[in-house]
């Protein structure tokens, strides 16, 4: 069994430190690197890219709404022209920094509110897909497992990767519980690790009401900005490896 383990990194901004990228990059196989719209400044992003390159971690563009104050977690309704251009702009900026760091951008994972919106909103999903196709159609789109955006992207010719979240609760319908709700974020590394082993072995995950839902995923995310994020990621990795799962990026030829 193979599985990719990813985390959202490069999100520090000036004197504001977010997460422990250096340590997290020792654990994950793919890094979703901020592009400056929801978080991240050029110096910090470049440092994260260099650290990823030195460890052989695959890099993806973590594109989001232009919302530094809200950390990209507030819903927005940009025009199609704006959203397409925003996606192109962010990927292009990260590609330039990645080149300077000795690596390259291999995939795109939208962030926060944009990620959740395009999972079901066909107009905004189409705009994000259009932006990716415009700059580099070889990029892979990472999206929420079991949602329509993955099929829409495939219909346009994009390769896709289905993602599950280690540290987030799920609704019985298979979507993420809103961060505004109690128990939306999980904090016990042992329990989270067990959930991910069951997901990989059975294709099922427990929803917030206790029911089991089917979920086929190619990548597991541990948020880099959550309290105890590194310990969470380490526990997930340890339990998966103990269960015989090989941790490797979904990008062919890449492994950690």
Tags for this model:
single chain, alpha/beta, TIM Barrel, 10 strands
Question: Any overview of this molecule?
Answer:
By secondary structure, the chain is an alpha/beta fold. Helices cover 38% and strands 18% of the residues. It has helices at 21-24, 42-55, 80-101, 112-118, 122-135, 148-155, 189-202, 229-242, and strands at residues 2-9, 30-34, 58-62, 105-108, 140-144, 159-165, 204-206, 212-214, 219-221, 246-247. Strands 1-2-3-4-5-6-9 form a 7-stranded parallel barrel. Helix 3 crosses helix 5. The protein is globular.
Could you list the spans in which at least 5 consecutive residues all have pLDDT below 50?
A: none
* Strand/helix succession: EHEHEHEHHEHEHEEEHE
The spatial strand order of the largest sheet comes to 1-2-3-4-5-6-9
Q: Provide the structure class.
A: alpha/beta
What does the largest sheet look like? Answer: 7 strands, parallel, barrel
The radius of gyration computed from the alpha-carbon positions, rounded to a whole number of angstroms, is 17 Å
Straight-line N-to-C gap: 15 Å
CATH class: Alpha Beta
**Shape annotation:** globular
Total discrete domains: 1
**If you consult CATH, what is the topology?**
TIM Barrel
- Mean pLDDT equals 94
- The helicity comes to 25-40%
CATH architecture: Alpha-Beta Barrel
- Per DSSP, what share of the residues sits in E-state strands of 2 or more residues? 15-25%
Tally the beta strands.
10
What's the tally of helices?
8
The CATH superfamily turns out to be: Glycoside hydrolase/deacetylase
């Amino acid at each position: 069994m193979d599985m990719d383990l990813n985390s959202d990194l490069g999100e520090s901004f000036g004197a504001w430190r977010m997460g422990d990228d250096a340590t997290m990059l020792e654990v994950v196989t793919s890094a979703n690197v901020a592009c400056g719209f929801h978080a991240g400044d050029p110096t910090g992003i470049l440092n994260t890219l260099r650290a990823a390159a030195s460890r052989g971690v695959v890099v993806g563009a973590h594109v989001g709404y232009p919302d530094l104050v809200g950390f990209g977690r507030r819903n927005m309704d940009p025009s199609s022209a704006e959203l397409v251009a925003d996606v192109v702009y962010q990927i292009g900026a990260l590609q330039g920094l990645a080149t300077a760091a000795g690596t390259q951008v291999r995939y795109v994972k939208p962030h926060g509110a944009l990620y959740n919106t395009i999972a079901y909103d066909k107009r905004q999903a189409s705009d994000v897909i259009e932006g990716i196709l415009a700059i580099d159609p070889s990029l892979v789109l990472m999206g929420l497992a079991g949602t329509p955006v993955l099929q829409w992207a495939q219909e346009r010719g994009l390769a896709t990767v289905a993602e599950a979240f280690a540290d987030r609760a799920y609704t019985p319908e298979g979507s993420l519980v809103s961060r505004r709700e109690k128990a939306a974020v999980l904090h016990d590394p042992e329990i989270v690790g067990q959930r991910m082993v069951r997901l990989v072995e059975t294709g099922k995950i427990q929803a917030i009401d206790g029911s089991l839902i089917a979920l086929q995923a190619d990548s597991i995310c541990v948020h880099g900005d959550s309290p105890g994020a590194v310990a969470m990621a380490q526990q997930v990795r340890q339990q998966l490896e103990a269960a015989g799962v090989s941790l490797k990026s979904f990008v062919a030829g890449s492994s950690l």
